[in-house]
Amino acid sequence: MAEHIQVTRALFDEVMVPNYAPAPIIPVRGQGSRVWDQAGREYVDFAGGIAVNALGHCHPALVSALKEQADKLWHLSNVMTNEPALRLAQKLVDSTFAEKVYFANSGAEANEAALKLARRWALDKFGSEKQQIISFGKSFHGRTFFTVTVGGQAAYSDGFGPKPGGIDHAEYNNLDSLKALMSDNTCAVILEPLQGEGGIIPGDAAFLQGVRDLCNQFNALMIYDEVQSGVGRTGKLYAYMHTNVVPDILTTAKSLGGGFPVGAMLTTTAIASHLKVGTHGSTYGGNPLACAVAEAALDTINQPEVLDGVLEREKLFRRELAAINEKHQVFSTVRGQGMLLGAVLNDQFKGRSRDFFLASADQGLFALVAGPDVIRFAPSLVIPEADIIEGMKRFEKAVAQVKQG
Prior knowledge:
- By secondary structure, this protein is α/β, with parallel strands linked by helices.
- The chain contains 14 helices and 17 strands.
- The longest helix has 25 residues, at 304-328.
- Its cofactor is pyridoxal 5'-phosphate.
- This is Acetylornithine aminotransferase.
């Protein structure tokens, strides 16, 4: 049947809910860090499906894991467990601070589970007064009603009626603003160690340590949202590993599945014990297909040569961006870590990140934005050096195009 449907960008406007405004091109095939559209035009991928395709497109380890599992078992309800889920959970526990794992399908669902767990933990241990959740301005934690309200961008949560209560927002990297909100009624503080959607803003080491200390002082859980920063993205398996700060709960998704939908919440045995049988669940969470692919992704990424290679690639990205900027003077700074970088536009180009994004596509490059003032790069963690050089050539042409108007 499918052959009879003429698939064009115009079809999107006819059959899809208009909450997205996709680019005019429709990609149909990917290999490594290259992608081809319907017309056969080739692009270099510096976007990685928004920090998702951590091993590029059609990585052999992921393809074979998917094909192998597809012939065995696709789905079981959580009335039973399965081998891929247990193997993946064991590997996550072995590689992190965590002792227990809960699987979901996305970062939003992992955060939903983390926030529900924090509330349940506080209720069980301290009573109903302890319910305040503190987040930070410009943060992003997902699109469910709970997570979008916890997220620090009112534009995403306004206009849907009464919001979940007991949620406050402090200013990121400003410890005093957090201190002013915290009390014995705070049950959790949730933050990204490196803010992604908010503009690729790294948490200062002193700030992150200060959050940890305040959480300890007020018996509150510290939740790290590592949906975007996790699984090798910053050159460590998780970004928390760059400092001495260890969260109580960590959420992970995006790169974890290398492009297959999967999310996880990691925590300690003591905290996990509050999600007793029946208190939370997910039909597809931990399904064998997703976990088999995620296991292959984790096995491939969690190797010293891949993690060290991420930092080598960061150097190359920064060098190329500096050369482009020397010539064209469009950025004030480049922020971020590993393969999650943000080129911040200077005053002359403020508010125009989308123009650079569109010009990049014109020149055969997939880039991203992180707000109106930041061009974001989140490519494959194993992107070949030649693809970085070629992509940057195209990006320079895009920059020139925007400058010429």
